[in-house]
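note to self — DONT lose this again. spent like an hour looking for the file last time. sequence + predicted structure for the chain T wanted, 276 res
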Amino acid sequence: MDLHYGNNREKVLMQLNKFITQPRSESMRINLGYHLSNSFDTEVIAAKPKFLDSTLTPRESSQVCNALSVFQCMASDPGARKWLVQEKIHKILYPFLKETTNVMTPRQPVRLSILILIDALTKFDELHGHEILHLFLQTQIFSSCLHCIHHGDMPIKKVATHILMKILMHEEGLRCCYSRPDCLRSVMEVLGQLVETFSYQIPSSQHLKDVIRCFLSLSRVGWIPRVYETVRNGVPQQLIDNTFRVIIHVDPQIQNMLYQLVLNLNLNPNNCSHED
């Protein structure tokens, strides 16, 4: 089936998207995704020039998102996740996340759909998870996530932060970050800037927890002097001075996490007190 050419491409994409996302046999959905993957690759790749030069229309944006949703369904299967990463689907997607501060409306749904797909692929605790993490760490995963956190709207920031958190919570991902001083500095700077935005754009409880988990993961390498000082000096004061007391009040787990961060880095907690 060739979706790139033909007058009914948009209609076919919508129908396939509806079909594959409906509750049905998991194997049927996965097999359909395998058979159509080349056509959907073509659909996404064809949109890249217009995306990058800001001429992508809302209709074309919708078509790309429909194609990406098929891959999202495939990512529910461990074997399909491994296959997608081995086929370097993420390398097809990275150009859509590259350096540009243009926030043209039709681009944002595409970026969000791509990040949701990458998030679905980064299930590192499940079957083939270690292999997938290893493959991701050989790509631009850190810089792509950091760019989206820095320049994206809030939905994009949330998903990108969640992906970064999942990488840093694994030993291999953490080691990849702290063994490259430029990467560690970038992670600390972007997370610090994100926390600053929380001062006037109140985050969800989950988003705040993802940020704190990133810092907690980095704080686990206190036995490395250079890394310890970088992390200790880079933790935003807002995290430990009771700035987010309203959120902490409704989610005590956050307070416990912050208390652990204070202990790990020997910080001055000011008004941050631990409640058992």
